[in-house]
Design a protein that fits this description.
The protein has helices at 2-9, 36-44, 64-78; strands at residues 16-19, 50-54, 84-88. By secondary structure, the protein is of the alpha/beta class.
């Protein structure tokens, strides 16, 4: 919050990106491996200071170890974002 306010007060720009539903339809990997890495590259072209990832980021599972693995996939891909990553959980994510 301080970064945003000081950025606005100083007249500089603050770029951020927002994306949600990076999960698949449940027919394979937990995240959309054919789209998500390319999406990160596209978002980086805007040099974001922050990436808000808003809900349904992984497919989720009734087996905890599978959900943990899905989050590892999400974290591995989203770590390529040039800015900070802030995931906000949705109903599939927990």
């Amino acid at each position: 919050m301080v970064l945003i306010l000081s950025s606005i007060a100083m007249g500089s720009t603050f770029n951020f990106v927002v994306v949600g539903d990076t999960q698949t339809d449940g027919s394979g990997s937990s995240v959309n491996m054919s789209v998500f890495p390319t999406l990160i590259e596209d978002m980086n072209r805007h040099d974001p200071a922050l990436g808000l990832f808003v809900g349904d980021l992984v497919g989720g599972s009734s087996v905890l170890s599978q959900t943990v693995n899905q989050w590892q996939d999400f974290k591995a891909i989203s770590s390529g974002l040039s800015g900070e990553v802030l995931p906000i959980l949705g109903n599939h994510d927990v």
